[in-house]
Amino acid sequence: MGILQSAPLSPCEAPAELFVADGGSRDDTSAIAASAGARVLAAPRGRGAQLAAGAAIASGEWLLFLHADTRLADGWRPAVDAFMAEPRNHARAAAFRFALDDPSPAARRLERLVAWRCRALGLPYGDQGLLIARTLYDRVGGYRPLPIMEDVDLIRRIGRRNIALLPVAAVTSAERWRRDGWLARSARNLLCLALYFLGVPPRAIAAIYR
């Protein structure tokens, strides 16, 4: 199993391979990643390109993608192991339950909305992680080097019926919502998704997102 991007793991939970794709950070990313036993690789800016770069050098039978501002809650490893042990899941992928590291009611409301989106639309985002067999990842074409919507693009190619939700949270930093406002940030995300489904080029959507 390979873990791409960032995963705050204890040594006893360390996977066979741990990669951090660094898109030109100027902080202590490389040192922190190395201290956790990760291999740091330089990658172009943009999450799609970074995720694709990590996957390109991973040799594991399974890949677990995580964003740098997301950490998995306790109990993630048994849930992952159980999913990987089921032979039919080589043709499926899995995401985690969305959660935010904020105690506010606004955070809980957003978590419920994301849970509805996953149930109704079968559309988890990249901040929920992605567990996928290498064979399936390669078959659908993997992450494309898109400036935004790389997660939605891949999920659509996998197919909503082939996405499972694991009963463990992927806890994401709520900094962006606290900074931009809960309604404003959520509305911007929804607008970007709508524009993507309307066929607007990802580069134009990325300018709006920023």
Q: What this model shows, in words?
A:
- This protein has 210 residues and is α/β, with parallel strands linked by helices.
- The chain has a single domain (2-209), classed as Spore Coat Polysaccharide Biosynthesis Protein SpsA, Chain A.
- 43% of the residues lie in helices and 21% in strands.
- The protein is built from nine helices and eight strands.
- It has helices at 29-35, 47-57, 76-85, 105-121, 134-140, 150-158, 175-180, 182-197, 202-209, and strands at 2-5, 17-22, 39-42, 62-66, 70-72, 93-100, 130-133, 163-172.
- An eight-stranded mixed beta sheet has the order 3-2-1-4-7-6-8-5, sandwiched between helices.
- Helix 1 (29-35) links the parallel strand 2 and strand 3.
- Helix 8 (182-197) packs antiparallel against helix 9 (202-209).
- Mean pLDDT is 87; it is low at 5-14.
Supply database-style keywords:
210 residues, alpha/beta, Spore Coat Polysaccharide Biosynthesis Protein SpsA, Chain A, 8-stranded mixed β-sheet, 8 strands, 43% helix, globular
Classify the secondary structure makeup into a structural class.
alpha/beta
For the record, the CATH class is Alpha Beta
Largest sheet: 8 strands, mixed
N to C succession of SSEs: EEHEHEEHEHEHHEHHH
Count of the separate structural domains: 1
| Uncertain residue segments | 5-14
Short description:
With 210 residues, the protein is α/β, with parallel strands linked by helices. The chain contains 9 helices and 8 strands. α8 (182-197) packs antiparallel against α9 (202-209).
